[in-house]
Amino acid sequence: EARLTLSRMAGPDPGPLFDSAVRSGATFGTGNTLNTIKSELANLQQGSNAQALYARTIDILKGLEQKLTQSGGNLDPKAFQAELRDLGASMRTAEGRTINQVEAGAIKKVYGALAESLDQTAASHAPPMIPGRLASAPNQAAQDLIEARRLVKRQAVLDEIEESVGKADKILRGQGDNTQFNAAAVMRDLKNNPFWNGTKGERNPAFTPAEKREIESLFTLLNKLPALQPGAGVNAGSMRVLQRTTAMGAGGTAGGMASG
Questions:
Q1: pLDDT in tens, 144-161
Q2: Rounded to an integer, what distance in angstroms lies between the CA atom of residue 201 and that of residue 205?
Q3: 15's torsion region: left (phi>0), alpha (psi -120 to 50) or beta?
Q4: pTM score > 0.70 for this model?
Q5: Closest CA relative to residue 163, chosen from 239, 96, 98, 248
Q6: Are 228 and 178 in contact (CB under 8 A)?
Q7: Separation between Cα atoms, residue 68 and residue 164, nearest integer Å
Q8: Average pLDDT in the 111-139 region?
């Protein structure tokens, strides 16, 4: 059951959708992102120790502010993806508590504003005209980019589940080499993953609420299974590998795409 559930949730390769968005020649507006950056920078820089405490995030937001100011608030699909990727990476670092929660909150608000502007473009049916040439429809390009990003985030979460499962077997005290799967450890890892939790402003999350409930129910069930004892001729290490394989099935990796 675990194998079927998780393998069914793996999506197709996002590469063709991303390539289609880039080839479109479209540009996307960034909505309220610039105003959000200005507001968060003003908030971060209020205290006398702001630079010492928040220098990393201040520099990140100032860099994006400068880029949007120079571009008139518009980004092509490749640049849009890069900015969302980098903000997402910064936000993930914040969730890992290597930067404080004040910075995490600022990054989340800017990320949410940028993601929301992409959703708004995707929902638009009236592409703007560019003087001198016929514009490609940005709504279709935005839809392609949104779906590509959803697939990347989805695979990144599935890859994290696979990694967490590899650490989730625990040897039962007093029972020799018997092992039990620790689903609670997997769920703790997942709840620190912003792709699993979703971000305010993004209307196309990596997993639907129903899918999240299905995965959580699956690991709750696995956690209730009795300890497994190695059979004749099977060493304990092999049994633990077998348990992990049964729990996960075939779960490929997103490779370099996972950071997007």
A1: 888 888 888 888 888 777
A2: 10
A3: alpha
A4: no
A5: 248
A6: yes
A7: 38
A8: 67
Quick one: tokens of 66?
């400068």
What amino acid is encoded at 140 in this protein?
Q
Counting Cβ atoms within 10 Å, is residue 96 exposed (0-12), middle (13-18) or buried (19+)? exposed
Q: Which residue has the tokens 């348990």?
A: 243
Cβ atoms of 177 and 144 within 8 Å: the answer is no
Total number of residues shown for the chain? 260
198: left (phi over 0), alpha (psi -120 to 50) or beta: left
What pLDDT does residue 187 have? 79
- For 216, residues 6+ apart whose C-beta sits below 8 A from its C-beta are 187
The pLDDT value given to residue 255: 30
Q: Which residues of 16-49 are buried (b: 16+ CB within 10 A; e: fewer)?
A: ebbebbbebebbbbbbbbbebbeebbeebeeeee
